[in-house]
Amino acid sequence: MTNKDFLAIIQKEARSVDYDRYLKQLVYKKISSDENIAIFEVSNKYIASWIKSKYTQVIQNCFEIYDGTKPTIEIKIVGEKKSKKEFIKEQIQNESAESTILNPSYTFNSFVVGSSNQMAYNASLAVSNKPGIQYNPLFIYGGTGLGKTHLLQACGNHAIEQGKTVIYVTIEQFMNDFTFSIKNKNMEHFRSKYRKCDVLLIDDIQFLSGKEQTQEEFFHTFNELHNAKKQIVMTSDRLPSQIAGLVDRLKSRFEWGLTADIQLPGLETKIAIIEKKSELNGISLTREIINFIATNLDNSIREIEGVLIRINASASLLNQEINLEMVQNLLKEQIKETKENIKLPDIINIVASELNIKPSDIKSKKRTAMVANARRVVIYLARELTHNSMPDIAKFLGMKDHSSISHNIKKANELIEKDENFKLIIQNLKNKIINKEW
Prior knowledge:
438 residues, alpha/beta, 5-stranded parallel β-sheet, 21 helices, 57% helix
């Protein structure tokens, strides 16, 4: 089998993102004459480690597909002169300096940038281009599912491409490593691993709270790396000053560089995220479906990704066409749960705030154009976002019967069709209400 034959087979067997990023770099050399070993070469130890851990079985399957054999797979580094035994021994000895295996899809190119995350994105890109020089440490904070881990691993993937040694762990993994090393009297290995890397990436640093012994070790690790001008990037769900049970000297060090937050994405950014994630996953969605998902789900990117996976799976496994009705049925229970948490007073308060009128005016008998428009918006959103019936809404607003409610909903739907500005107001308010931005 030639190298061209091998690449043609594995391209069909592997995920496209894995092939483009790693597998196409494999160079097939030969089957060794003395043993049934297929030898490949790649440019560095990180790529070799990643392929071995993820694709050894698939590579063997490629040989089975080609000629029915199933050789042992050996991946060497270009220019490697050592014997197999010497190579394995060196790999074990240098384990502490080996880069972490990261998610290859978490790159800067696949991250959707908007006003809610612009600063965090720019700062992450800056430290990736010049690690240890500016913004050290970089501390990224924000709510769950907004893209902190994506940015953190994007920093790592970028640094690895530059030949840097990267360690990415959650703080829980760091604590487990620390505890294991103490128990086995192997702190030298632990310190070598965490203090000899070029870039240290720590996820969910807030869970360091109250762990006094681990905080002491992390303090010294931090100082060692910082003094050596090695880059440190951390994520948290809150600012350093707000992490209870964290010693002051760590809080102050976490704030030495730059703190950058990721906020809830606005509607436009959320739509862009859905478009990007759909494209990456090979899912074709109409503008109508994208808008439906964006205005009916909260702002968690993880939830959006989960929904797209469900849509794709349903279409594939049940042989369904992806249309609006299919997506509506798929998300019915999810949206129902959201609706149960939305109350009529909340809708009035946020509409009044956005349209700059008093909440009491909406429930009053006033009929000025401004109040009538706000009342119509409240009625439309109440019917769309809650389980209240038209008589329920009429009673809440102090209106005589539900016929006025029906008239206002009909009028609102007409305006949504004809008036782009009114449509944007509705979408913006709907987004804020679903995400409890009041």
